[in-house]
Structure formats: C-alpha cells, structure tokens
C-alpha cells in the first residue's frame, strides 16, 4: 500500500483547502478494493442494478454493515473502455456539469473508491452536513497518483484504456472528524468513472487517539499506585 498524506504543497493543490484531517492511501497498482482493516465496512459494486441514469438509488453496501446510503443522480454503466473494476459495472458523472451525491444514514471516518480513467474536470468533495471537509480536483487526484509511483497508468482489466490513470483511493478521516456526504462531479467533456465505493469505520485509532488512550492508562495506573500507598500507610 502506498501512503500519501495531504499537507504542505499537496494541500495547495486542492480546489478548496481541507477543513478536516484527512490522510490518503493508495492501494498497489491493479488492486481494486481496500486492504485496510475495519470494525465496520460495506462495499457498493453497482453490479446489481440495471444500467441507466437514476433519480435516486438506495444502497445497503452489500448488506455487510449497518450502513445504507442514497445516491442522487448517478448513472450506472456496463463495462467498457473506461471501467469498471474486474470488467464489471460502474458509476459515472458523465459530461460537462454532471454530478451525483451519496448521503449516508450515519457518519463514517473512512471512504474508499476505485477511480477509473481519471479525466480533467473530475472533482471529489466530502461533507459533514453542509460543512465542506475536503475537495479534490483533477490536479490533486493526479498528484496523489503520480507521487505514489509508477504502475497506475492504464487499467489492469482487459479491453480498457491504457492512457489514463486507474487507482484505488483510501480516504481516512483523522482527529475525530467524520463525513456523511460525498459529491462526485465533472466539469469537463469526459466523465468521472468509479467503482467499489467503500464506507466504514477504521479498526485502529488514529495516533492522537492512541496518545489519549495511553495517557488515560497512565492516569489509571497512577491512581491505582496512589491507592496502594494510602492503604499501606493506613495499615
């Protein structure tokens, strides 16, 4: 897994600076699902829906978690030159000004997706309610991919384009931040193709959380030692 943390120069590449702590991992080239560990996770593959454009589409993310979500305005397409993972169906915001939104039934601190055929005009945004947490345009997404190293140019699946970037992104919200809405949009003439949308809760606390836990354990130990000393003096 390749790890890339937004910050410094990279943060300047965002269309809108991130208001939340968000770290980004890329899976190895050719990997189309997350390999992270979760306490709760669900995946929407878009394979169980008929191809077409939907006003709304309700997902239970494979039924493997308590997460459900409502997609507003997505277009489902069968496998073609631009997607999807494993030559399966995928979802797209197709054409200039196209977009769709995913709203979850509850907050999450992880979102992952397989980005297919990255194109100029692609934009990804995360919200908690109406608050924008982070916004990633084409330049930011491409910068993350190229910084991770070679191997992401071209699809790993047969019959798909070899001239655009394909990669699985892991977005991890840190410092206790969470999101409940994701917006995929496209301002160019191509599309924003993606697959295997993954939502969940991370299994391992972030470093700041570990620090608080360790400090808490230390305070508990100190209190226990103090009680033992007081008991000894009383005796």
Task: Explain what this protein looks like in three dimensions.
The chain has 235 residues and is an alpha+beta fold. The chain folds into two domains: 2-204, Jelly Rolls; 206-235. Helix content is 18%, strand content 40%. The chain is built from three helices and 15 strands. It has helices at 9-12, 138-148, 207-234, and strands at residues 2-5, 21-26, 38-44, 52-53, 56-59, 69-72, 75-77, 90-94, 98-108, 110-116, 122-128, 131-137, 167-174, 179-186, 191-202. The strands form two sheets. Strands 1, 2, 3, 4, 7, 8, 10, 13 and 15 form a nine-stranded antiparallel beta sheet that branches. A six-stranded antiparallel beta sheet has the order 5-6-9-14-11-12. A hairpin with a 2-residue loop joins strand 11 (122-128) and strand 12. The longest helix has 28 residues, at 207-234. The protein is globular, with a radius of gyration of 21 Å. The N and C termini lie far apart (58 Å). 39% of the residues are buried.
The pLDDT mean sits at 86
Q: Could you describe the largest sheet, including whether it forms a barrel?
A: 9 strands, antiparallel
CATH topology name of the largest domain: Jelly Rolls
Q: How many E strands?
A: 15
Strand percentage: 35-45%
Approximate shape? globular
Note the run of SSEs as H and E: EHEEEEEEEEEEEHEEEH
CATH class of the largest domain: Mainly Beta
* Second rung of CATH, namely the architecture of the largest domain: Sandwich
Radius of gyration: 21 Å
- The secondary-structure class comes to alpha+beta
Unreliable spans are 2-18, 208-214, 226-235
Task: Tell me the helix content.
Answer: 10-25%
Total of helices: 3
Separation, N- and C-terminal Cα atoms: 58 Å
Q: Tally the structural domains.
A: 2
């Amino acid at each position: 897994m390749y790890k890339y943390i937004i910050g410094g120069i990279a943060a300047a590449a965002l269309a809108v600076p991130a208001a939340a702590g968000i770290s980004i991992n890329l899976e190895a080239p050719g990997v189309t699902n997350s390999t992270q560990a979760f306490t709760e996770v669900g995946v929407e593959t878009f394979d169980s829906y008929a191809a077409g454009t939907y006003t709304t589409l309700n997902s239970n993310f494979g039924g493997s978690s308590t997460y459900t979500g409502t997609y507003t305005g997505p277009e489902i397409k069968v496998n073609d030159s631009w997607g999807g993972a494993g030559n399966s169906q995928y979802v797209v915001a197709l054409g200039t000004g196209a977009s769709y939104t995913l709203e979850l039934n509850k907050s999450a601190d992880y979102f992952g997706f397989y980005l297919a055929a990255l194109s100029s005009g692609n934009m990804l945004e995360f919200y908690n309610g109406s608050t924008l947490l982070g916004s990633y345009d084409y330049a930011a997404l491409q910068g993350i991919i190229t910084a991770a190293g070679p191997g992401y140019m071209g699809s790993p699946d047969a019959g798909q384009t070899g001239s655009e970037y394909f990669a699985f992104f892991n977005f991890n919200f840190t410092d206790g931040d969470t999101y409940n809405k994701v917006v995929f949009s496209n301002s160019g003439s191509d599309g924003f193709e993606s697959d295997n949308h993954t939502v969940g809760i991370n299994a391992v606390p972030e470093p700041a959380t570990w620090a608080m836990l360790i400090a808490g354990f230390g305070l508990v130990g100190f209190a226990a030692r103090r009680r033992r000393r007081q008991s000894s003096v009383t005796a």
